[in-house]
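To the team - adenosine-5'-triphosphate complex, inputs and output below.
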Amino acid sequence: MPDTPRIEFRNVTKRFANHRQGGHVVAVEGVSLSIADGEIVSLIGPSGCGKSTLLNMGSGLDPVSSGEVHVDGELVTKPNRHVAFMLQKDLLLPWRTIIENVEFGQEIQGLSRRERRQRALDLLGKCHLTDFIDHYPHQLSGGMRQRAALARTLAVDPTVLLMDEPFSALDAQTKMVLQQDLGRTLAETGKTALFITHDLVEAIALSDRILVMSQRPGRIIEEIEVDIEDRDNPMKRRQHPKVATYVVRLMQLLQIEQAAA
Ligand SMILES: Nc1ncnc2c1ncn2[C@@H]1O[C@H](COP(=O)(O)OP(=O)(O)OP(=O)(O)O)[C@@H](O)[C@H]1O
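Output:
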């Protein structure tokens, strides 16, 4: 019997009430997807096609209109501790030091002080922040804050990481360094992730698979396996000659040239 997917969407549709015009907006329609243990999957698609909506349903923050979402085989009906979210905004608590921020979720989970300190130190080391554990968020650069947010997301030991454009607010070079941290850390921890991005090379550098969505109502129109070695080393991967072929394919699917004409 095949292994249970870490996260699975079964024929999921999401409708929002349209208060101004009456009726409703179909944000996502009939989406089915399944992500295996340790896989990293990117979701790309035009603005407003329902990517964030899909992630919100995966986290249990937003209910589905029809269909089902399962995490580790269990039906998702509300936010649960097996799924962790990372957003473009780091949402660090300004009155807590970096290590206290990383420990926050574990405090809620009821881990002992010693346990959570040890796990936080370990993750902050992996995220190259050992020298900054006692700093406050405002004393860190944007890139460092996002690294701290990654450590905090991993600290609660989620089954699945849902990431909504986590690096889109960063400059191009900082972004590449952060992608490298993420690629390495996900490989080391063996975590499963569903990742939204508008950056085609980022999707290629980080993922096992890329799911391409249509204009709203968002449907999955193509699934592309990224057949390039070094998934744990995005910096190396993005220099691979095959990357250009994938970019061309994604541009065609997203009709980027037509949109610019
Ligand atoms: N709470 C809501 N109420 C009503 N409509 C909503 C709500 N949330 C999202 N929508 C609508 O659903 C559609 C999909 O939005 P969503 O934010 O999921 O798109 P997206 O693909 O993540 O966009 P972007 O790439 O610009 O971030 C949009 O038309 C949006 O206006």
